[in-house]
Amino acid sequence: MSIPSRPTRRSLFKAGLGLTLAGAGLSVAAPAVPAMAAGQSGTPLCDQPGDSASQQGLGSGDLAIPYYREHDGSWGYVFGDAWTGTQQSGRYLGSPVMLNQASFDASGATPISFTWAMPTGGQAGQLFDYGHNTDNGYGHEVSRIPNDCIEFGGRTYIQYTSVATWEPPAGYDGSLMSGVAYSDDHGVTWHDYDYHWAGDVQGANQSLYGMWSFAGIDPDGWLYIFSKRWNGTHRNTADGGAIQLFRIQPSDFRDGNFGAQQNWAYLDGSWQWTTAAPPSVILTGHNTGEFSVKRIGGTYCMSYFDVDMGAICTRTAPRPDAGWSIPIPRITALTVPNLYGGYIHPGSASANSLTLMVSQWNGTGGSPYRVLQFDGINA
């Protein structure tokens, strides 16, 4: 398995933030003095000799996207490119990689500690069966990077982006395609749905189906999904922060009947759920990287990496299709240099006390290449 090369992450914190809420028809600006996670440095979850991740075979990695394993009440954490040793040393494990935890302390008093690994339940290994830096039947792939994971009805799903290049030219997103993989044995073996969403190299540059976040199954019975252009490279100069929203019945999603989705769209002079038009852009702003939307205690919370600012921002809404609050920078490169990610833990205590999984990498190899746990973040 060859190791994919990756470019430097942007780390500078830039002043100013202006975002447009397309769905509400409003332009808003953040406060001049952002409310940041002052004094917090985060708890490292890997990249330290002898830590719980290394005991499961993962020395260093990023993302650690958290999800609830409803079949047994445990928690899963899905990493991107990972290595057996600290500081990106040792054997390259691949991507995605999963570690698990029996129970989670939402108070933050006891940091996350990993207690077993997938796919075997022993040492960590790549979940999907594919090769890196080769053509697996779809075109040249560098790596498949997870964007979110969810389990319901006994099946686990990971939405991922297949990366064609980590250094796309200006105006291009560098993706090959995006897809959804599923597991019916809780993460041991994985299968790909036949349908894939074409990316840059396949002729659909800037597809808004590049990166997904599963907001979860709402009490109304629909699975709500937010999606945006691929910008896991943080080098997509045309990303523009655009986010769209669609929903689908869980049974249709399980069957791979993705054409059954309903779209949140501005049609005939009003916003509505429809199958007669594609989703409309609901949010725009700075270029954004990884993002996460979760329903926490009845409030929809969003977290995302603002590439231009070098900051993890949060915002809230009472419903997926309602207006979103003004974005607030919570964790910045002033506190955590070379940060990105910012995934919301679905087991967070409340919308006023989120746990966020924040990645840190210096972009040149070595240390740090890790995930930090931040608790008590106000969305």
SSE layout and pairing:
Layout: E1 18-21, E2 26-29, E3 43-44, H1 52-55, E4 60-61, E5 65-69, E6 74-79, E7 82-83, E8 92-94, E9 97-101, E10 116-117, E11 134-135, E12 140-141, E13 143-152, E14 155-163, E15 175-183, E16 191-192, E17 197-198, E18 211-217, E19 223-228, E20 243-248, H2 250-254, E21 262-267, E22 270-274, E23 288-296, E24 299-306, E25 311-317, E26 328-332, E27 339-344, E28 354-361, E29 369-377
Antiparallel strand pairs: 1-2, 3-29, 4-7, 5-6, 6-9, 7-8, 9-10, 11-12, 13-14, 14-15, 15-16, 15-17, 18-19, 19-20, 20-21, 21-22, 23-24, 24-25, 25-26, 27-28, 28-29
Let me know the average pLDDT. Answer: 91
Helical amount = under 10%
Poorly predicted tracts of residues:
8-36
Radius of gyration: 19 Å
> What fraction strand?
35-45%
Explain how this protein is built.
- With about 375 residues, this protein is mostly beta strands.
- It is about 0% helix and about 40% strand.
- The strands form eight sheets. Strands 13, 14, 15, 16 and 17 form a five-stranded antiparallel beta sheet that branches.
- A hairpin with a 2-residue loop joins strand 23 and strand 24.
- The longest helix is centred in the middle third of the chain and has 5 residues.
- It is globular and about 60 Å long.
- About 10% of the residues have low confidence.
